[in-house]
Predict the 3D structure of the following.
Amino acid sequence: MSDIHPDTAVPSIETQNGSTIRNNASAAADAIKNHPITQSVTNGPVADNIKDQHAKTSAEFSNLAASRQTPSTPAATGQPLTHYHSFFGSLLSWKNPRASGIAYATVVLFIFAARYLDIIRYAFKLSYMILGITVLAEGVGKALFSTGLASQIRPKKYYTVSKETLNALIGDVHELLNFFIIEAQQIIYAENLFFSSAAFLGAYLSYYLIKVVPFWGLSLISTSILFLAPLIYKTNQELIDHHVANATKVINQQTEQVKALAGQHAARATETTKGFVSDYSAKAQEYIGNARGRSVSPTLSSKPAPEVKKENAPSAYKAEDFPEAPKEEFKSAPPVGETASALKTEEEPLIST
């Protein structure tokens, strides 16, 4: 009789081949891992230094993420600021130098990639390469081993975005938009004079540089200034503060001198103006007094009136110089009718014969 029982499962050739391949791969990986060269690399000083730097970098990124706190100092209008004000303040001030350096390098690489690489075209290329590999692996696996290779690495559960994650993402985007909006208004309304002056200088220079520098070059210059200017100030803070203090002192002295000179000139101008005003006021009052004197009726003069010569003047008037008064009574006038009839009877013809 045969030793094979009907209930005993006989492994197939495909299963045995798959197990052999996996065992050989794991044995090779263990051999490489336990090799002296690998051990010297993974456990040597270079590996220790790499692990130490990795730990420090991770700690700085954690500190940078923890700095996303709403600042205690509100804006000039009393509105609370966003937590991105603290985040970008910590990032650009190089409080975490490794995190700031990696962020700066990432932005620079992105600018160069956008300039020299056709990102959209390479994205399509990467997509068709990944899809081709997965389709080929799945087809070859099913043809040779009756099991697709892509299905072997398929996760037990597909990744999904939870509602909490989406809400948190939307909240971060909202805070980021408010950060840029508030920061732009603070610069426009000169809440911080230094930042507003720097923004004015940057906009003024960009207006002329955009004519000769391409957009990606201008973006690179702006990013470098934004990241490296605080670093230069931080590393040379004492020297820069000393020169700034001296410059401020000189400017204040010159300002005081200008104020003193302006005050002296203003006082002289005020005195001169007062003198002119008083002179013109006196002249105006004199003119007004003269005009009033001419408009009033003339008064009696104290000078004696000129004497009239009496040589040709008559000494007295006589009665003969006047006509005699009538002595008869006035007669009444005849009626108008009688006068008219008398005139008709006495009328002569117009043509004499």
User: Anything to note?
Assistant: Residues 236-292 form one domain. The chain is about 70% helix and 0% strand. Residues 1-15 have pLDDT under 50 and may be disordered.
